[in-house]
Amino acid sequence: MDTLALEATQPKKAQNGAGPGVPGPPTPAKRKPAKKTKKAVVFFEVEILDAKTKDKLCFLDKVEPNATIGEIKSMFHKSHPQWYPARQSIRLDPKGKSLKDEDVLQHLPVGTTATFYFRDLGAQISWVTVFLTEYAGPLLIYLMFYFRVPFIYAPKYDFTTSKHWVVHLACMCHSFHYVKRLLETLFVHRFSHGTMPLRNIFKNCTYYWGFAAWMAYYINHPLYTPPIYGEQQIRLALTVFLFCQIGNFSIHIALRNLRPPGSKTRKIPYPTKNPFTWIFLLVSCPNYTYELGSWLGFTLMTQCLPVAFFTLVGFIQMTVWAKGKHRSYLKEFRDYPTLRSPILPFIL
Ligand SMILES: NC(=O)c1ccc[n+]([C@@H]2O[C@H](COP(=O)([O-])OP(=O)(O)OC[C@H]3O[C@@H](n4cnc5c(N)ncnc54)[C@H](OP(=O)(O)O)[C@@H]3O)[C@@H](O)[C@H]2O)c1
């Protein structure tokens, strides 16, 4: 059985020079030096049950009270090598939330015989790999359509007139957006989770790659029609797009600066000297607000229905996440600013 190594001591009775029933103070000369009383360590017993079947999977004897869930996962891993720590979800309740790796045994609402429930999260993949795959895909797929690789459009369009300049601009903006995201993933974000279930990557890639192909097909189509209000509309759209890209980047930098390297701490984000972050006064997740703005700009620029649809779906998804993050800020921080909305100031 795996346990954490720790020296246990029992409290020793204090001794003095006088025998029982002998009144009066002890003679100092005869008194033995008092031994230091060591505090008893109450070890825990931890049993881990399968969250679905309730079968006992593991029993850990003499676990230190200050052992973390992360350490318990490592001990469990030794007896079940197929379930490495990143794919374990340890819970207090079979259907409850996963405990954090930093949670300490003695601070959890359990007795000295603690029961935890285990769920297998499935094979894991690192977040960086996930993001790189998710974002490199749209970048390359879009470019395939832009350069009109053979067999995408019918041969009858081979000799159509050259592309409208907005098509080149859209390609630059789309590529810029995903290159920015790739670079931010590598050099800016400080993620708190190391991994994600492998199966999610298929879902996420279908979403990002599929939409990129759908949008690129229409924007780069030989019969693409440029925006109805021409240059004025394109200029306005480009301004909105660039403004929101800078805003999104500024928020990512502000979030990065909240977390010291190597830590997982979460703090309340506040406006900084950078005016693009002042939106924190009104919104909990302004990076999503700016992301929405960027895609609205791109929709206006291309005047293309699949882009509008992608913007709408992204907005719904980010609203769900922003509401969740906003709720957890309110729960975690008592002094959380009350004026803030999750994603849209005063509205949503
Ligand atoms: N178009 C779309 O459909 C779409 C959808 C989603 C995202 N995106 C884009 O992808 C970007 C990243 O998305 P995301 O969902 O990962 O954003 P996020 O949850 O806001 O996180 C961005 C980074 O900041 C950290 N962070 C967030 N709040 C923090 C706090 N209070 N204290 C310290 N660190 C904090 C996060 O760490 P954790 O690892 O702890 O979360 C993460 O590393 C978005 O800003 C957006 O531009 C686009």
TrEMBL record:
The keyword Acetylation applies. Residues 195-348 form the 3-oxo-5-alpha-steroid 4-dehydrogenase C-terminal domain. Residues 1-35 are annotated as: Disordered. GO terms for cellular component: endoplasmic reticulum; endoplasmic reticulum membrane. One of its GO terms (biological process) is sphingolipid metabolic process. It is found in: Endoplasmic reticulum membrane. The keyword rRNA-binding does not apply. Its EC number is 1.3.1.93. The chain crosses the membrane at residues 125-145, 204-224, 236-255, 276-298, 304-322. It catalyses: (2E,8Z,11Z,14Z)-eicosatetraenoyl-CoA + NADPH + H(+) = (8Z,11Z,14Z)-eicosatrienoyl-CoA + NADP(+); (2E,7Z,10Z,13Z,16Z,19Z)-docosahexaenoyl-CoA + NADPH + H(+) = (7Z,10Z,13Z,16Z,19Z)-docosapentaenoyl-CoA + NADP(+); octadecanoyl-CoA + NADP(+) = (2E)-octadecenoyl-CoA + NADPH + H(+); a very-long-chain 2,3-saturated fatty acyl-CoA + NADP(+) = a very-long-chain (2E)-enoyl-CoA + NADPH + H(+). Pathway: Lipid metabolism; sphingolipid metabolism; Sphingolipid metabolism; Lipid metabolism; fatty acid biosynthesis. InterPro entries: 3-oxo-5_a-steroid_4-DH_C, SRD5A/TECR, TECR-like_N, Ubiquitin-like_domsf. Residues 44-120 form the TECR-like N-terminal domain. This is Very-long-chain enoyl-CoA reductase. The lineage of its organism: Eukaryota, Metazoa, Chordata, Craniata, Vertebrata.
